[in-house]
Amino acid sequence: MIVLDALLQGILMGLLFALVALGLTIIFGMMDIVNFAHGEFLMIGMYTTYWTSLFLHIDPLITLPASAIVGMLLGLASYYWLVKYLLRGPMIAQLFGTFGLMLFLRYLAQFLFGIDYRIIQKGLLVGKTLSLEFPYLGIFRFDWTKLSAAILSLIAFLLVYYLLHRTKLGKALRATALNREAANYMGIKTERMNALAWMIGGGTVGIAGGLIVNFWYVYPTVGLLFVMIAFASVAMGGFGSIKGAFFAGILVGILEMLFPMFGHLTGWDFFGPHFKFTVVYFAYFIIVVLRPQGLFGWKK
Amino acid sequence: MEKIKDALDFRDFSKPEKVGFAIFTLFLLAFPWLGAGSFVKAVAIQFLLFSLFGMGWNTIGGYGGQVELGKAQYVGIGAYTVALMMVWWKIPFWVSMPIGILIALGYSFIIGYPLFRLKGHYFAIATICTSLVLQDIFINWKLVGAAKGIELPIHEHPDFLYMQFKSDTFYFYFIMVLFYIAIFYMNWFRKSKLGYQLRMIKEDEEAAESLGIDARWCKIKAYSIASAFVAVGGGFLAVYNLYIDPYSVMDLDLSIKIALMAMLGGAGSMWGPIIGSAFLVPLDRFLGSWLGAHKGLIGVDFMIYSALIMIVSAYQPRGIWGIIEQFRKKGT
């Protein structure tokens, strides 16, 4: 019963993790770049929703388009002003380049907004819970904020999936990811496809940020936690695999919820809630060592 | 004997390099007597310490070409071994530091064995993960002080056995000795068999393996050497600061700084890490103290710092040493 509850909560969180991981995996699949600044994109999405809902006095859920647009612009700006140049260099320069971007955005946020922890206090759904009673199983309680965030992130995920797999644009994007030169010969503007990948990546993570801020504190260094979770999910699912990111995100969500539950049941201090993200890092390590291509990976 | 001769042999460097190195050595020897303030001295110690870290990283990251971003865990191992042994059993620094190195070596073999099945991004992220796991364990481990960290007992009188001195000058000369041992070691390392093997692996791993080089084993060896270097620095950090906690010695930022300094100076070259840390450590510290004094400008120093990282990685991935070599080639 309590385990089932944790499982459901884990799936809700997992859907959000999947949306965070989506942008990372698209970008990696396109150009073999790991975007360290991904968590900071998320943080900026969170701040965008926070400030727009505060200043315009509207519900945080309506501000999602603002977060999405800010995320997209951020993605585009990073591609044209930084990543384009990084692509010419060796891998280590690419790693440090996006790492520099991460630090820059983090301290920019700290400079602009201070180091305070902020959370949305007003909103239609904030603080409300949904209780569902099932025969034999008892009552399940869900925070409306989490539930709606999970549903919306599922919708966003499906939309991006549709865009990539059912439209001509998505076909061009996937073709570029498979073979850049061949795509170039077919008349696909690969440079633009790169920018598009960064735009989609930034947009989705912006939306994810807008959803997460409904029930999570936002502060300048919040990104690191989420980017590590996203790395773990992307590695589990296989770098570049969208389906993989989805299932691995949910798996990470479940892991992160079940682990403290296990500690709660056994009473063993080692399995405490403070280790719930450690287990995610550890799972990443084990999975990449045993199965480097991930669960659904096609790129090795 | 042969090895020591190789280590002391600087003949294959060009004349400007040799002269520069000699002037630099004299400057370091005279530095504490030039009337620098305590802040400048602290910056100089930091510079030598980070050069030591950077030279360690250079074995695996520079010569081996593996993007390693988890060096902070070995700083932590070195620092915690020295600190804990001193607090629990009053074991002198000179005993606990070698033990710290041994622990770091053992740990690096255990971690390195599975780690070097991985390549590229997978490897880079996995090194971050191992470091974060160890940091999380230390943050929550009550026995070693958890998040509060541990304070080393302060001796009333200066004590050579426990490496406690009143003045920074002694620490300066001590880290300088370590720094020169590291330089001589690196001078030998770049001419050693392992050094050549690593450079070959960096150029073309498959070709290296077809020549009978066990690439994975070479990388593990280089990784362990790097870890030992860093653990020495960690031990020094413990006696120098007299206080350590998981956030100051095991943070991801520290790992990144170590790798960044080596890369900014020029990874895979003898002088790269030194130049990098000579450039970044003062920049970091002076910017920090200058901007930190102004209220409302918190974080601006890091913004400048990170902007610099982006510019260097976008335009000159081979670092400052790469720029110098470019000019030299044009000159001749």
Question: Can you describe what's shown?
Answer:
- The complex is a heterodimer of chains A (300) and B (332).
- Chain A starts with a helix and ends in a 10-residue tail after the last helix.
- With 300 residues, chain A is mostly helical.
- Chain A is globular.
- In chain A, a hairpin with a 3-residue loop joins β1 and β2.
- Chain A is built from 11 helices and 2 strands, in the order ααααββααααααα.
- Chain B has 332 residues and is mainly α.
- Chain B has one domain: Orthogonal Bundle (ABC transporter involved in vitamin B12 uptake, BtuC), CATH 1.10.3470.
- Chain B contains 15 helices and 2 strands.
- In chain B, α3 packs across α13, α4 runs antiparallel to α5 and α8 (193-203) crosses α10 (215-241).
- The two termini of chain B are 37 Å apart.
- Chains A and B meet through α3, α4, α9 and α11 of A and α6, α12 and α14 of B.
